[in-house]
Design goal:
The protein is mainly α. The protein is built from 4 helices and 2 strands, in the order ααααββ. GO terms for molecular function: glycerophosphocholine cholinephosphodiesterase activity; metal ion binding.
Length: 148
């Protein structure tokens, strides 16, 4: 996608981790090392890497699951590798590494879980559009019904 006249120099096709990407750690490591080489050679100025297993396994098995904990250890090892490689390439004072998450995660077992029944709080006839009906939802009321 072009943004202000610029396009990415390199872009890899996104793979959904699911159960069909057994080499996710090796592929992420290879992408990381390639990116560091390109940074070292001043061929690129920005790298964005996405590591999905922590999110995937947290949603699939829960935040306290063995699978999610292993994924956290795996990304920790990859981040450690990134720092060691940046140091060995003389990039520590030249590259800023920022680690982001799009959301947190918590267990939602039935003990202590509060359920909010929207039907008891609002008149669903006042809602023009609703996205999702579960742990999260988005509501768009009809005109004039927002304050109600």
């Amino acid at each position: 996608v072009e943004i202000r006249g610029g396009k990415p120099t390199f872009c890899r096709k996104y793979k959904y981790v699911g159960y069909s990407w057994p080499t996710v750690n090796e592929d992420t490591q290879e992408a990381l090392l390639t990116a560091l080489q390109l940074l070292e050679n001043n061929e690129i100025q920005l790298v964005q890497l996405y590591y999905e297993p922590v999110d995937f396994y947290g949603h699939k098995f829960g935040p306290n699951s063995i699978e999610r904990k292993k994924a956290v250890k795996d990304i920790d090892s990859l981040l450690d590798l990134a720092q060691r490689e940046m140091a060995s390439r003389g990039l520590l004072d030249k590259v800023n590494m920022v680690v982001l998450s799009d959301h947190g995660m918590t267990s939602t077992d039935s003990r202590g879980l509060s359920v909010i029944n929207l039907n008891q709080l609002i008149d669903m006839a006042d809602i023009r559009y609703m996205v999702y009906y579960g742990a999260t939802s988005m509501l768009l009321p009809h005109d004039g019904k927002l304050e109600k």
